[in-house]
Amino acid sequence: LFYFCEYIPENKDGKQNTYIDTRSHDLVLGCKSGEEQAITYLAFKLLFDLSDGCALVVVPPSHMSKNGASGMHKLIEKMFSKTAEHKGLIDGSHCLYRNENIPAAHLGGKRSLAMQKESISIRDIDLIRGKDVLLIDDVVTTGNSMAAGEDLLAPYARSVVCFAVGKTIRTENLQFGFILDLDGTLFDTATG
Predict the structure, then answer these.
(1) Partner of 69 at 20 to 30 A CA spacing, among 63, 76, 151, 191?
(2) What is the pLDDT of residue 117?
(3) What's the chain's Rg over C-alpha atoms?
(4) Cα torsion angle, 7, 69, 76, 34, sign
């Protein structure tokens, strides 16, 4: 899993967490909501790193009414409005879709891998068949929706690379005895 930045959500009481890096927080939430400035910034960052002929696929949002209308769909639209076609990229943003609503994770919804697999379907398989696929999500917390999407795409794609704008870091992990290594993994200082 590749991600652009770490994301620390607000506290459950809605107050901003003291650990929050506001630039990363604003970028993640801006991309999630489809804010033009955030989408444009990330679109240009991604375009230069993608290989020719790559298919871009979005992890569907938790609610069926947002199929095809999430911030990540707007990201792919922005990429194709610029130079994506010149690189031979494939718009596979609608290949995965939510076939039933599931509770949103940020509202406390428990979203197991099994629940994700049951609530996501695949269509337009020929768009990704034999292609390298970049599977895009706005925020990864448990990784279950990303894993479900990857499992659905893998039998048809040549390869699937997972990318998220933000990777959730829980503040309970930011305590004495732990540090974040340069690659974002937790390192227990007590065990060396």
Answers:
(1) 151
(2) 92
(3) 17
(4) negative
- The pLDDT value recorded for residue 17 is 60
Backbone phi, then psi, for 85, in 5-degree steps? -65, -35
- Residue type (1 letter), 87: K
CA dihedral 48, 52, 53, 58 (to 10 degrees): -20
Q: Could you give the angle at the alpha carbon of 106 between the alpha carbons of 71 and 46, nearest 5°?
A: 30
DSSP assignment string, 55-74:
EEEEPPPSSGGGTT-SHHHH
Asked whether the CA dihedral 77, 79, 83, 84 is positive or negative, the reply is negative
Is the CB of residue 156 less than 8 Å from the CB of residue 125? Answer: yes
Question: What does the pLDDT read at residue 188?
Answer: 46
Nearest to 138 by CA among 17, 48, 30: 30
- Whole-prediction pTM: 0.82
Cα–Cα dist 152/3, whole Å: 21
- With bands split at pLDDT 50, 70 and 90, how would you rate the model's confidence at 177? very low
71-82 vs 22-33: helix axis angle to the nearest 10? 90
**pLDDT tens per residue, range 154-170:** 999 999 999 999 998 87
Residue 47 pLDDT grade (very low, low, confident, very high; cuts 50, 70, 90): confident
